[in-house]
Amino acid sequence: MKYNIKKLKVCLFLIVLFVFGSGCTGNQEQSAKENQDTHIAKVHTNHPVDQSVANQAKGKTIKREEVTGVKAVNTDKELLVALKVEQFDRFRLKTIKKNVKSNLEKTYPDYKVFVSTDQKIFLELEQLEQKLQKDQPKKKILNKEFDEIKSLMKEQA
Predict the structure, then answer these.
(1) Structural domain of 139
(2) Which residues of the chain register pLDDT less than 50?
(3) 80 and 137 within one domain
(4) Which residues lie below 8 Å from residue 125, measured CB to CB, with a gap of 6+?
């Protein structure tokens, strides 16, 4: 009987050890995935609308510790920025969004700045960035898609 109880205790100890050990490796995979998100793709185009302002805005915004991802596109007078924020910092979305917007407005006073933390806007801007890199659409098409995303941002607000 004592032998069975010892065997049971050893088995339970090994199971508990296994559960805690596997829980720790999940966090490493998640943090590795988050580190991949922080990579910023610079949009290089031979397009009439230069994306250097958007690229600079991305570089400036990603330096904030609560921001894990940034997508941005600009036209001649407007700048759209979408942020991805760490899960814990989602409680402070309004203040993060307000601070980023005010910093960008100070840096780029000639541009009207729109900032969003919405995931859908982030994905839409990501698709627009990819189109700019691949196809290099005409200015009219770019402005149309830009205005669609801008109207989505206004609906969310």
Answers:
(1) 52-156
(2) 27-29, 31-33, 35-37
(3) yes
(4) 71, 72, 73, 80, 81, 82, 149
